[in-house]
Amino acid sequence: MGEGARQGRGTVAMAAIFPVLRGLLFAGVGLGIGAGLAVLFTNLTGRPAKEPVIALGYVFALIGWLLGVGMWDSWAKEWFGGKAHIQHGGGVGRYFRFTTDHKVIGIQYLVTMVVLFLLAGIGALVMRVELADAGQNLLSPGDYNTAMSLHGIIMIAVAVATIIGGFANFTLPIMIGANDVAFPRINALSYWIVPPVAVLLVLTPVFGGFDNGWTGYPPLSVVNAPGALLFLLAFLTFGLSSILGGINFVATVITLRAPGMTWSRLPIFVWAVFAAALISFIATQWVAYALLMVILQRIFGMPFFNPPGGNAVMYEHIFWFYSHPAVYIMILPAFGIFLEILSHFSRKPLFAYKWVVRAFLLIVVMSFVVWAHHLFTSGMNSRIHLPFMVLTELISIPTGVVFLSALGTIWRGRMWLTTPMLFALAMVFNFLIGGLTGLFLADVPTDIQLQDTYFVVAHFHYTIMGGEIFAIMAAIYYWFPKITGRMYNETLGRVHFVGMTLFYNVTSIAMFVVGTAGMNRRVADYPADLSGTNLFITVASFLLAASFLPFVYNMVASWTRGPKAAANPWGARTLEWQTSSPPPLENFEHPPVIDDPYGYGSPARQPVAGPAYGAAPGSGD
Amino acid sequence: MNRDTITVAALWAVLTVIGEALVIGIGLFPAPLAEEAKIVDEAFEHLVILGVPVFTFVVSVLVYAVIRFRRRGAELEDGPPVRTHGKWVAFWFAWTTALTVAVIIHPGVTGLRSLTASHGEDPDLLVKVTGQRWLWTFEYPEQNVTTINELVIPVDKLVRFEVTAPDRDVLHSFWIPAFRIKIDAVPGLVTHTYARATRVGAFEEDVDYRVQCAELCGLAHGKMAATLSVVSQEEFEQWAKGRARVEAR
Ligand code: HEM
Ligand SMILES: [Cu+2]
Ligand SMILES: [Cu+2]
Fold first, then answer.
1. How far apart, in whole angstroms, are the C-alpha atoms of residue B83 and residue A117?
2. For residues B15 and B28, which has the higher predicted lDDT (pLDDT)?
3. Cα separation of A109 and A235, whole Å?
């Protein structure tokens, strides 16, 4: 390669990431201003302190970052009488820009989240090494707690944002026949808020780490190292992104459905995202209050959570008033994905569609009235135990409808067992275990023993990892041809599926065993008689990690060199398959034919557009 | 009823029998050493027994469908356009609701009742527990004894634990795995729980005779444990006297 060409490429790369560089520069300036002001104030009041400097510096840095990365050019200029300009255009550069195309934003989210997922996964392996044997001290207790807390909060963020921010962004507008989302600039804003969250979290070890877990219970989160302040600010910022995303999708589904796309024709994934988005924008502000109060107590010593006058149980209530609904922000879209896939790959209408929709809406309401099942051992008045136990257990009924629909859909179908379908089927199995073990935690007597043990850890890994992450994997393979315009390698996909399903289950079932045997969670050490099972879990978790290698290779290799995908490799009926792969800007070259998305097998249905079955992988088996 | 339905029903029945045989008496918990533990273990076992048929039902349908209804030809072919089926939906709601209500009543309401049944009674012994970073203090007000990281209680007596944490400390949780009792230690609040031990024993023989902190409290959270000995009433009195004298000196 000639010197000139290399230089040329360098300039192109610089130009591509120019908005990011400018964002960083502005962030630096903001940091200087904010931190400077805080230093000034704290010294004037005669109380120099570190944390106000961090907090104010961060707020200004965040504003600087957002303006620099593109909010100024494409939005804020307008507020001062200027003319805003949104840059679209192709090439890799658009992924590093404040652009409003929902498909670009979807890819930005997806790539960011997959990277964070793998990072947090490495954190899990670090913990498992420490836990391989009792009495080990490979990590200091503080480092263990930081690894555990980082793993937790990053995974929670991945679980909250991947489907709504990633898949719903890419596919939902197309599925309802829209050109974009209702508030494209808010959409871009909600993405560009995320990188600062990641940066804050990654920086926590530099500030002494944080040992309060993802739940951040005070008074611990008030008295620990400044790393915890970074955690609190990160969580708060992430919540803002979540609220903006929620508002956007609620508005999009209500206002932008194409003519003919009636509520009763909405694909179930759209319903699921709609339900989750409702929760997201109603509930998230509660956790923001809770976090803000902790920050205020840290910085100004306001006595919210310590006596006299305050107590920590209050925080637990406010926190779970968000965080229980939040588990449905995670799982409802996952339900949407696997039901969608089961129907298209069984080539049968989604069974009991209307009941599923009702169940989703009922779950939205009920998710707000069960939060105190996380507080059965908190010391709250025990008169509240009974109603919360009953309400929690009643959620099993609408949840059961989802299983009815899944099983009814595959029954007598013509199941095409591709990688996405296999992941969707595995999710039915995993979530079954997740849901059934939830009952043990809803029942007060058993929860008193199991609360804060590895049984809880296994339970929520079954719901979040076994349920949601499996659905995300299904979705990645399912929409890969649509998003990238290329086909993934089916053999590698199946290898990934077999490894992940097997080792995931082995790892987590063993966690139930140590949990019931008396191992509590969030500890770096445990009684010696549990070391055999723990070594087993550690080995299994490394095998589980290894099962992701074919996945990563498949994604990278297929995205760059995979065979070109047809518009509709699955012959599926929802609208995103009626446009090219990848879809053009504004999504449709011709207005799509809007028909029943689940009209399989009925003679009255409209045929789906596009070369239906071309270039599909493994279509012979 | 057609062949597929009957086959699945048979598969379900077989798997359920196997499943129940495997789980009954599986004994995942440490030995139950208090009355409270028996209530919890019974509730747990009951939930497992009820959960097995649900699990095997879904697994039977899933496995059978994957084997029987996978596509065989090369071409995509549609299944029957069945959208819903009133009877199956009704059947589904009936059994999921019945099961949920059953679980709410037993072990839910009944378990909660029996667990709190002793709470009105006059306790035989009061122990004031303080959790702080990172140790447990036990105060026996009537015996005038205070210990650190060492809990001694008499067997067959109802013990009331009053649990708290210092104002400037953080949350902890007072957990005795062998007793299945757990209650948080909250700065500024006094929480309480009860236990009646059923057997003498000590930490030296069984690690589940321990008080373990179960709420993340920072650096040494995992190591924040105290030993527990359950002894006869006479031994307890002797022990308390010995300790009280030491205190008084
Ligand atoms: C069948 C429905 C479910 C029931 C009955 C249920 C019940 C519970 C209960 C009672 C707890 C508190 C356990 C304790 O600490 O004592 C819990 C914890 C948890 N659940 Fe679930 N759950 C269900 C579904 C889900 C779903 C769908 C998710 C996420 C997608 C989820 C994620 C979690 C998480 C993250 C925790 C741990 C919270 C912590 O850090 O303490 N659960 N669940
Ligand atoms: Cu909850
Ligand atoms: Cu503690």
1. 37
2. B15
3. 17
Residue A468: CB within 6 Å of ligand 1?
A: yes
How far are the Cα atoms of A404, A425, A499, A549 from residue B66, in angstroms, in the given order?
A: 16, 9, 19, 27
CA–CA separation, A227 and B83 (whole Å): 54
What is the spatial distance between Cα B240 and Cα B243, in angstroms, rounded to a whole number? 5
Cα A441 to ligand 2 centroid, rounded to whole Å = 9
Query: Alpha helices of A45-140 — where are they, by DSSP H?
Result: 51-66, 77-79, 102-131
Q: How many CB atoms lie within 10 A of CB A442?
A: 25
pTM of the model: 0.94
Closest to A334 in 3D by CA, of A276, A279, A376, A393: A276
Asked whether residue B8 carries a pLDDT value surpassing 80, the answer given is yes
Per mean pLDDT, which of A308-317, A433-442, A598-607 is the most reliable? Answer: A433-442
b vs e for A457-473, b when ≥16 Cβ sit within 10 Å of the residue's Cβ? bbbbbbbbbbbbbbbbb
Q: Between residues 349 and 368 of chain A, which touch chain B (CB distance below 8 Å)?
A: 349-355
Supply the residue whose CA is at minimum distance from atom 32 of ligand 1.
A460
Query: How confident is the model over A603-614, as a mean pLDDT?
Result: 56
Which residues, numbered 398 to 417 in chain A, qualify as contacts with chain B under a Cβ-Cβ cut-off of 8 Å? Answer: 400-401, 403-404, 407-408, 410-417
- Cα-Cα end-to-end distance for chain B: 84
Residue A591: per-residue pLDDT: 85
Atom of ligand 1 nearest to the CA of A334: 30
Task: Say if residue A208's pLDDT is above 50.
Answer: yes
Report the relative pairing of strands B125-132 and B158-164 from DSSP bridges.
Answer: parallel
Give, in order, the Cα–Cα distances in Å from A173 to each of A162, A566, B245: 16, 20, 78
Among A89-103, A402-416, A583-597, the range of highest mean pLDDT: A402-416
pLDDT band for position A606 (50/70/90)? low
Contacts of A63 (CB under 8 A, 6+ apart): A30
Confidence grade of residue A117 (pLDDT, cut at 50, 70, 90):
very high
Alpha helices in chain B (DSSP H): 3-23, 35-68, 86-103, 110-116, 233-248
The answer, for A63 touching chain B at a CB cutoff of 8 Å, is no
pLDDT, tens only, B46-90: 999 999 999 999 999 999 999 999 998 877 889 999 999 999 999
Please, what is the angle between helix A268-300 and helix A227-255, to 10°? 150
B225: its two tokens: 């444990």
Q: Which domains does chain A have, with CATH numbers?
A: 17-79 (no CATH), 105-589 (1.20.210.10)
> B54 vs A436: CB contact, 8 Å cut-off?
yes
Interchain pair A211, B171: CB under 8 A: no
- Checking if the pLDDT of A14 tops 80, the result is no
Taking residues A545-572, report their average pLDDT.
95
CB spacing of B82 vs A349 below 8 angstroms: yes
Kindly give the distance from the C-alpha atom of residue B40 to the centroid of ligand 2, in angstroms, as a whole number. 21
- A421 in B contact zone (CB under 8 Å): no
Confidence band for A328, pLDDT divided at 50, 70 and 90 = very high
* Helix or strand holding residue B150 (H, E): strand B150-154
φ/ψ of residue A114, rounded to 5: -65, -40
pLDDT at position A10 is: 65
Q: What is the pLDDT of residue A88?
A: 76
> Residue range A548-566: average pLDDT?
96
**Cis peptide bond upstream of A308, omega within 30:** yes
Q: Cα torsion for A583, A589, A590, A596, to the nearest 10°?
A: 10
Cβ-Cβ contacts under 8 Å for A313 (sequence gap 6 or more): A375, A378, A379, A380, B184, B186, B189
State the Cα–Cα distance between residues A451 and A447, nearest whole angstrom.
5
- Please give the span between the terminal C-alpha atoms of chain A, in angstroms, as a whole number: 45
